[in-house]
Amino acid sequence: MPTTLASIHRFPLKSARGEELDRAVVEPWGLAGDRRWMLVDPEGSALTARELHALLLLEPDLTATGLRVRAPGRPPLEVATPDPAQQVPVRLWHSELTAAAAGRGSDDWFSDVLGRPVRLVHLDDPTRRPTSPDFGESDDRVSLADGYPLLVATEASLAALNDVVLERSQGAHAPLPMTRFRPNVVVSGTEPWVEDDWRRVRIGDAVFRAVKGCARCVITTLDPDTATGGKEPIASLARIRRWDGATWFGVNLVPDLLGGEPVTIRAGDEVEVLEQVPAGGGPIRPVR
Predict the structure, then answer these.
(1) Per the domain annotation, does 287 fall within a domain?
(2) Are 123 and 249 part of one and the same domain?
(3) What is the pLDDT of residue 1?
């Protein structure tokens, strides 16, 4: 079975629902349009589904002029891409940068939907945010993803995890969908967990560095259709994928684009591992 790109996923608004694409443009900081919008609290700190589970129920779409967002039982919100001159300070994990404020109308809509004061911001210039120097290069950049431009997962690893979930529950727990893990690219035609060993991989015409495994958080325990919580997949990952006090699923990628020029990838593209390390070490924690 050939190794191919099974699906592509973009998340226009951080922590909200994603969309599956037939093709996507890879930019130095991630997929075009991926996680360029974000909600922050009144002090400018990022808000995610970790603390606001209802974010998972919001359905964002990019439009020609900005962003459209749907919420259960609400009329949709249309937001124009804000003026880049209207910058406000924001904080996302260890990153402190600025983003463009979307304005009072969108802030009020989101605050009403989520039941607390929030502001909507747009990252007009992703070159403002470097990746962690512990795992990336000095000129690596990322949009508003947690840490790195893209996340890859494999269908085989999800199937192996679901075998453990079903065994633990004695068949009572439904198989977990890939949407629990919010990857940008999903690869088919591999053995389970081989992505741990990747260091450079080509997807279509785009080449990526695999820089760090992805330690999983409480968001994966939330049903993406209802935002209700449970114990899986963390409980099963803790049995088979626990290292350094964390549980791991998926690998973070950084594009290595020739001259920084964007490249289009398409579902069905060939995936080729260009460099890997011997198997058995677990996920990348760091690579150097």
Answers:
(1) no
(2) no
(3) 79
